[in-house]
Sequence to fold (300 residues):
Amino acid sequence: MRIELKDVIKSADVEDPVNLHVHRPLQLALVRPLVRTSITPNQVTFLSLCAGLGSAALIVKGTPVALLAAGVLLFSSAILDGVDGMIARLKKTSSETGHAIDGAADYAVNVSTTAAAVYYLAQRMNPLLAIALGLLAHLAWAQHLMLYDFHCATYLRFLTGGKHQGGDLDRGRDLLERLRARNASLFSRTLVAVYVWQLGNRQTFLERVNPVAASYRTLDADAETGAAYVARHRTTMRAWAFLGNAPHMDLMALATATGRFDLYFLLRIVGFTALAVILAVWERRVSATPLMREEEVSAA
Fold:
């Protein structure tokens, strides 16, 4: 049976247009032959990490040819970053450990390429200004990604009637306890501990930004509640998708190929932060009306 896009993506509602119409078709073209091999999602994640780190190394080199190659590698890393999840879904091997490994790889790529970009800019402008731009852009990216990841995970949980459990704080904590109980490797325990720490930070951040939305994780994702949530939040979810990692990777790859990291950093700090604030205010208004009647909330 031919694998189609609907078989390997979670929902079109959580994808930005470029990711849906450019990344996903390219990823699907890779997945179709790879899923028939013994390659694992974690091996693809490792390839994505290597491409990202290779991009960072070429950014440090800084020649026009090196920057162009770095941009291609970074875009390749972004494509591979989606392939691992597709293979995991097709082979039914998705797990919290896989989420943790994928998240750690994404973070390593973003930190390394941002640091390399700061080094590149520091050779061409005031070093302190370059460091400030890179640091602020990285902090902005982290906050924006937490917002997207939270709303994406919540939306998918309600959309699938609770079947989607990726990025769940309680499941992450349970996994960490199981790893500790069986004295798993230090690497595994450390990786999952960092993952749980990130999920905790995300939950704390959302409790400050939108306490009502943060409380949705305690609601049962039954059919009625799920349908109400999806109907009310589909439009905002499609807007949140622009704050995900895919748009960041595409714009960073473009900045890398052209050497204009300063423009991308400013866009992330100012433009995307403005979008995040607008969406946060919008989301609070959408969340103001209870999904369930008062007596149902009390029972939940």
Observations:
- The chain has a mean pLDDT of 91.
- Residues 5-299 form a domain with the Four Helix Bundle (Hemerythrin (Met), subunit A) fold (CATH 1.20.120.1760).
- The radius of gyration is 20 Å.
